[in-house]
Amino acid sequence: MAAVDRVLVVMMVLIAMLAIGFNTVSADPDLLQDVCVADPTSGIMVNGFTCKQNAIAQDFFFAGLSMPGLTNNTFGSLVTPANVMQIPGLNTLGVSMARIDYAPGGLNPPHTHPRATEIVFVLEGALNVGFITTANVLITKTIQKGEVYTFPKGLVHFQKNDGKVPAAVIAGFNSQLPGTQVLGATLFGASPPVPDNVLTKAFQIGTEEVEKIKSKFAPMK
Ligand SMILES: *[C@@H]1O[C@H](CO)[C@@H](O)[C@H](O)[C@H]1NC(C)=O
């Protein structure tokens, strides 16, 4: 092989490695135009949403994070999303936000975001937060107003308000639609239901216990 050819091959391998590297660090695919405001009424299925014509300011705007969400529910917490479903202008841009409010004692129960890393900024109060690695190591900390914590993409995580006053965070995600699977609801509230004999064996418990847990999640669907 000529020296010039070898240099070309090395360059191509390097470019391919860089491309793979960039793909693994960015959650959503890169964009190919300035804006692609989601058109959810289009019948065409693509990875994301097709673009509507004539973007306007309202397509990029959302006021829904300005007020605390109601936390008078089973878990004492409420997630208010600000993703492509609320802000169609986020389509193809690879970012989104949420606000999470917590009553005293409130829990955002263990869940994962299959498509995004999350970073939270504490607006009010204090939270006991943590994520669990694939080696089952719990990485946990108490975070206070003004502080930031990170939950790596795909890992199970939670936030709990152990304080006596309400707490709130603003969350950022590197996906226009991070997706959420809450472990309890996913396994015990799925429709059609996950078979009892899968859950009895998985959790090493009896059918009665499985049915009891399922009954707690059934009304939340
Ligand atoms: C929560 O509080 C709001 C406003 O006070 C009320 O309208 C709603 O019914 C309550 N929800 C539950 C589940 O208690």
UniProtKB/TrEMBL annotation:
Biological process terms in GO annotation: plasmodesmata-mediated intercellular transport; regulation of root development
Source superkingdom: Eukaryota
The reaction(s) this protein catalyses: 2 superoxide + 2 H(+) = H2O2 + O2
Stretch forming the signal peptide: 1-27
Molecular functions (GO terms): manganese ion binding; superoxide dismutase activity
Stored PANTHER family: GERMIN-LIKE PROTEIN SUBFAMILY 3 MEMBER 3 (PTHR31238)
Name recorded for this polypeptide: Germin-like protein
